[in-house]
Amino acid sequence: MTNVNRLNVGGREIILVGTAHISKKSVELVRETINAEKPDVVAIELCGRRNEAIKNKERWDETEIHQVIKTGGSYMLLMQLFLGNLQRKLGDEIGVKPGAEMLEAINAANDAGIPVALVDRDIAVTLKRAFALMPLREKLHLAYDLVLGIFEREEINEDLIEKLKEKDMLTEIMEDLAKEVPSVKRVLIDERDEYIAKKIVAINARKIVAVVGAGHVQGIINRINAAASGWHTAEMHALESVPVGKSRLMYMGYAITLIFTCMVAWGFYQHGSDIAVEMLVKWFLIHGTLSALGVLIAFGHPFSAAAAFVAAPFTSLHPILAAGWFAGAVEAWVRKPRVMDFEGLMKLNSFADYRKNRVTRIFLVMTFANIGSSIGTFIALPYLATIV
Question: Is there a single domain that holds both residue 53 and residue 187?
Fold first, then answer.
């Protein structure tokens, strides 16, 4: 499949340029195509956030870090940082910065005085939708793959990168992804194909050059004709919204609270206050110890471990609160991130780097504190059942 595809939609010409996101050839192809075609508009597979990130090198500040702690978004931010650093490492090996082809498209369009249209969905919405729609099994599977990826050291060269633009290989990758984590594939690929196609069709121009990742080309082609036949604004609103409502995990949290309360009440009814107090103490020690251990595994400060120890027994009984929030807040207070930590967020090459950087260590502390508390629940409930 060629990397440049031409479509005629309602008398308009849409030229799709499929690129590898880390490729010298893609950078050259983008400028050559824009210069040769001289389109009315250049559409780019970027949202406002990613556009700013590419131009301004992923700027972070302390306000954003505290906001993540408050909203409990450590998992998504760690995933975003990991994927960003992985892409940066690939680019370092072949001498091309991530997103260079998109930046080249912007520069080529500006040089020729051509308007630029950003046609991708907001990256924050995409990640939140993926996380919200993903069942627990898929979340665990994806977490396993990401952690495994940190330790893999497969050699990557430019030939391998260019192979990612071949239809057969890319189709095979997408099919494998759909089997393992279909929710992620649906949100990251299928929904964005539909969104980008509709945004391109909505552009009021006779000739459009659209620069998109190779993995989206076929999906966009399939959806452009359908989008051209008409679509409702409500469809775009649906794609831009984040599902709300109680997840299975929240219902599980309520169930755990109910089960624990009933067990303690039954223990008090059957054996008196001594057994009830023993059950409360065991619950406290199991959760506190495992959550604090998680913080220490992440090389968190002892004060952060103490915060997790105190918070975990209570937050484990509240479906909305998490021990990691408290441990992360203490970690951010005791070890305030420095300028060098913010500047180093896109220079992380190993798990050790994530632990040494004060920003990412905060999120690791949050994550491992929550994992320890969750393990504590699954240990404590069966154990308390033996006491009753």
Answer: yes
Indicate whether 159 and 267 sit together in one domain: no
Q: 13 - beta bridge partners?
A: 8, 207
- 305 and 227 within one domain: no
Q: Which two three-digit tokens encode residue 17?
A: 């340029």
Tens digit of each residue's pLDDT (9 = 90 or more) over 329-354: 999 889 887 767 766 666 776 777 77
Burial (0-12, 13-18, 19+ Cβ within 10 Å), 12 = middle
Domain count of the chain? 2
d(CA 203, CA 224): 12
pTM of the predicted model, to two decimals? Answer: 0.68
Cα 314 to Cα 299: distance, rounded to the nearest angstrom:
23
Provide the domain limits for residue 349: 248-387
**pLDDT tens per residue, range 194-247:** 999 999 998 999 999 999 988 788 889 988 877 666 666 667 788 888 776 556
User: Minimal CA–CA distance to 98: which of 119, 120, 81, 76?
Assistant: 81
